[in-house]
């Protein structure tokens, strides 16, 4: 498919000529720069797709865009590949660091590829701002959408009453059903309780829920933003590493919550456990072929299926290479022989050209293995570090955050630190004290904090 369109704004503004239906697209934003255009201009993220994508069914609950290419500063992250999300599936998006997952998500969130307006899409990209709004209110107030939906529903009802065309009436009735379904989901009478339950799951005590968002750190405000995303229940939720700011309890809660997500979910996570619990599908960004490869099942199923696919690809690759070597050998040996042999060599050359033109199977490339090694510090007397009776508070009037902590570290120690996010942060703050301890001690080694 060579015929491509550069992306433009949402489908409703370039995809349907039906004025009655365009009510669902909201106000006329034709003079306002779209997020997709801003991405191209400011961040140099450009998406193109098959022109036929414009023929997409505006009522479909699935996203299907063919022949998508997304580039960042001119370099293609994906090339001529299909982007498909089906309603009800939870997709884990995987690929090596720097391969372009976040950039691609940004492009999708900006609707730089055609996604029908009936699909409301929410991309969690940054924390909730530091304001005077209490955390709980910040969450349940997110559904200003409700008022808009009610107004839309009223207007659609009026149009249905006025129109005589049966086909338009059916289309509008379908839209009306979607609007009412959505209004049910946003039930205002339970809004506060639902918002509170989500915040509780993400670690906010009752007291914290009434605190102003400006009183929270960036990490906690990220949780407020996550709570808003979950509260909204968008048809398509897009999350980039949602567990980054969460402690273990909140991760478990989120895992459980998302495992029951019954709309569309696309998320990046570097935790295999999280993916195993949440995903129904995996999308692999293959950085060698620049394609999106789709796998059914969770991360463990992906690993098995990937092995099978790689082995199959290797067999195909080997067979093709063998064939090509044989053909080349024939041409080399008989290309200058008798007329009959030369003819045969010419026909093999044609066969070879055909094979090359059709494209050869690429050799499967295994994922890079990381091997971390640290310089050998030699023999050290134990304990290497002994912490005895350590207490911590930010200042003499602040509450003690931990007290009488005792532990030792020697060369064989492999220690995982667990606790609430706040406490862990404090431990890490203490790394300076630990470093100072080492530097003041009789040995001079390097300490690595990652
Ligand atoms: N602000 C920037 N300036 C320059 N290059 C950038 C910038 N942001 C991203 N890149 C580059 O764009 C490419 C895609 O980055 P992106 O962040 O989308 O990858 P990713 O797959 O999300 O990686 P990770 O798994 O580390 O989050 C990378 O090569 C990255 O180095
Ligand atoms: Mg990323």
From TrEMBL:
The keyword ATP-binding applies. It comes from Aureoumbra lagunensis. Coiled coil: none annotated. GO terms for molecular function: ATP binding; ATP hydrolysis activity. Gene3D superfamilies: P-loop containing nucleotide triphosphate hydrolases (3.40.50.300). It holds the Pfam family ABC_tran. PROSITE patterns: ABC_TRANSPORTER_1 (PS00211), ABC_TRANSPORTER_2 (PS50893). SMART domains: AAA. This is ABC transporter domain-containing protein. Residues 63-312 form the ABC transporter domain. Keywords: ATP-binding, Nucleotide-binding, Repeat.
């Amino acid at each position: 498919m060579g015929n491509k369109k550069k992306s433009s704004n949402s489908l409703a503004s370039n995809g349907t000529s039906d004025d009655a239906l365009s009510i669902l697209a909201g106000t006329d934003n034709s003079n306002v720069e779209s997020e997709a255009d801003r991405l191209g201009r400011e961040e140099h993220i450009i998406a193109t797709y098959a022109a036929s994508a414009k023929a997409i069914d505006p009522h479909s609950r699935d996203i299907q865009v063919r022949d998508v290419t997304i580039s960042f500063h001119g370099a293609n992250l994906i090339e001529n590949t299909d982007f498909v999300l089906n309603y009800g599936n939870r997709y884990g998006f995987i690929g090596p660091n720097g391969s372009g997952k976040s950039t691609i998500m940004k492009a999708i969130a900006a609707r730089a590829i055609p996604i029908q307006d009936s699909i409301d899409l929410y991309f969690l990209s940054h924390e909730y701002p530091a304001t005077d709004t209490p955390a709980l209110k910040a969450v349940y107030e997110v559904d200003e959408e409700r008022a808009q939906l009610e107004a839309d529903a009223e207007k659609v009802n009026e149009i249905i009453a006025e129109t005589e065309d049966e086909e338009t009436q059916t289309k509008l009735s379908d839209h009306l059903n979607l609007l009412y379904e959505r209004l049910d989901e946003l039930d205002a009478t339970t809004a506060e309780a639902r918002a509170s339950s989500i915040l509780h799951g993400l670690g906010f005590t009752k007291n914290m829920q009434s605190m102003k968002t400006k009183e929270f750190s960036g990490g906690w405000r990220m949780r407020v933003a996550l709570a808003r995303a979950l509260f909204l229940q968008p048809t398509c939720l897009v999350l980039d590493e949602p567990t980054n700011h969460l402690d273990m309890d909140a991760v478990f809660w989120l895992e459980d919550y998302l495992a029951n997500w019954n709309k569309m979910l696309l998320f990046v996570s570097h935790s295999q456990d999280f993916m195993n619990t949440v995903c129904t599908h995996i999308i692999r960004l293959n950085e060698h072929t620049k394609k999106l490869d789709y796998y059914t099942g969770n991360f463990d199923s992906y690993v098995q299926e990937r092995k099978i696919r790689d082995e199959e690809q290797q067999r195909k690759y080997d067979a093709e290479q063998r064939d090509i070597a044989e053909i080349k050998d024939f041409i080399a040996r008989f290309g200058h022989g008798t007329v009959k042999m030369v003819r045969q060599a010419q026909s093999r050359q044609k066969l070879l050209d055909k094979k090359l033109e059709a494209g050869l199977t690429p050799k499967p490339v295994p994922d890079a293995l990381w091997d971390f090694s640290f310089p050998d510090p030699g023999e050290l007397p134990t304990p290497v570090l002994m912490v005895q009776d350590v207490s911590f508070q930010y200042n003499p009037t602040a509450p003690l955050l931990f007290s009488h902590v005792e532990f030792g570290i020697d060369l064989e120690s492999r220690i995982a630190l667990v606790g609430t996010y706040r406490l862990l942060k404090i431990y890490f703050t203490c790394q300076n004290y630990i470093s100072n301890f080492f530097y003041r001690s009789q040995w001079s080694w390097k300490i690595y904090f990652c």
